[in-house]
Hints:
By secondary structure, the chain is of the alpha/beta class. The chain has helices at residues 42-49, 92-99, 108-117, 131-142, 161-174, 189-195, 213-219, 232-235, 271-281, and strands at residues 3-14, 17-27, 31-35, 57-62, 77-80, 149-153, 181-185, 198-203, 206-212, 220-225, 239-244, 247-253, 265-267.
Amino acid sequence: MSNLLEVKGLCKSYGGFSLKDVSFGIPGGYIMGFIGPNGAGKTTTIKSILGMINRDAGDIRLLGAGDARGLRPNKDIGVVMDAPMYADDWTCADVEAAVSPFYRGWDFGKYAELLDKFELDRKKKVKDLSRGMKVKLMIAAALSHDAKLLILDEPTSGLDPVARDELCELLTGFVTDENHSILFSTHITADLEKIADYITFIQGGQIIYTGTKESLLEKYAMVKGGPSELNAEQKRLVIGMKEHSTGFSGIAETGDLGKLPKSLLIEPVSLDEIIIYMNKGVRLDD
């Protein structure tokens, strides 16, 4: 099983921010959720992958090819960024006319089908579409040129629950064979809990975790207890501990649970909770 996307040792510094040795890979046939707090480096990583910014170091390989630099429109890669890439005065039909010449495999029937599915009027201008409808338009274009790798940066932001569910079904169908994969960056982690196979968690420009979603969710547990149930050594095992008048909450590695009092309440943890507590409790090296 080969990786359709491989990132090794990616570094990029500008302003007061740096990506440090970012590495991960997505096997064919899978969806990888890309998570982390705002400013963690998700968009910088994606722009580096796409050649939209120059990286300082590292190797990026797309679809098994050599190192990718200065990537031009590629029929095998579909991209949906967090903001529309089309002129405001273009209609949905204009978008197809402008974009389709760049892709030899453009499927006019597929584009029409997706416009109908997403209830997008071909004559409506981009500037008159809601945020959610603009996202749907970008997704329709990304799926209309036989892309093998989809790179999505916050695609479900602005979509209502029904539209998000429809998109998740569409993405799940997209990866039914080993020839398609998705890198899915989003703050709506409920979508990833539903459809992602792998998770890469970035914080402060560094990778905290990359691996299967199940392994990440099994690695940590939510712990809650009273105000005096932990000694100083045990408190150090609780990541991002929040203390209040009636007790505390935090997350702990499941391997450390045996070192904590049996009286504590132990619950499964969500991806949201992992991001929140890790952001509060983990201090990365400079």
